[in-house]
Amino acid sequence: MNIAVFCGSSRGTDPEYAAKTEIFGKELARAGHNLVYGGGHVGLMGVVADAVLEENGHVTGVIPLSLEQKELAHNKISELHVVKNMHERKALMANRADAFVALPGGVGTLEEIFEAWTWAQLGYHKKPVAFLEMNGFYAQLFAQMDHMTHEGFIQPIHREMIIIEQDPKRLLERLETYIPPKNKWE
Fold it and tell me: Which end of the chain is more exposed for a tag (fewer CB within 10 A), N or C?
């Protein structure tokens, strides 16, 4: 399975984010999955790529030319695709991915995982969308998602389609056994 991982280009303030990201990357490779990610060597992006590589896993990076020119690209990964812009990056990552996972990150991470979730709701794909929760990082976001569901803006079936796990092995198992619900307009 090719797993697209969205995460921060920084490590955050809590060292546990990097430690748990490394564990996730190693588990991903040990389970025989491939990493598809944003192509950087910095932050949690670099941590997850390095962890997969340490376990002899395959890493595909997709980075916009502007970021590659700033020397942010990870040059030791299995494949690196340099694209024109963020739109091409997201399209190539989505096409390569069989599943989407968010680790801690910022605005870009949220934008990417929410786009994948939106596409799943609309039936553009039937791939699992997941969060690897670390130290309550996304707790308030999940509460907001629950509120949006309660207020009628997210259908319960679509709220439930999001996989949330704290254990990397369990998250990978759930990705492997995912059965998509009906899309929003079925």
Answer: C
Number of Cβ atoms within 10 Å of the Cβ of 123: 13
CATH no. for 2-173: 3.40.50.450
| pLDDT band at 79; cut points 50, 70, 90 | very high
CB atoms within 10 A of CB 95: 12
Q: How far is the C-alpha of 77 from the C-alpha of 180, rounded, in Å?
A: 31
In angstroms, rounded to a whole number, what is the distance separating the alpha carbons of residues 165 and 168?
7
Domain boundaries, the chain: 2-173
Characterize 150-174 residue by residue with b for buried, 16 or more Cβ atoms within 10 angstroms of its Cβ, and e for exposed.
eeeebeeebbebbbebeebeebbeb
pTM (two decimals): 0.96
pLDDT at 130 over 70: yes
> Per-residue pLDDT averaged across 115-131, rounded?
95
Measured distance CA(132)–CA(150) in Å, rounded: 23
**Residue 80: burial class (beta carbons within 10 Å; 0-12, 13-18, 19+):** middle
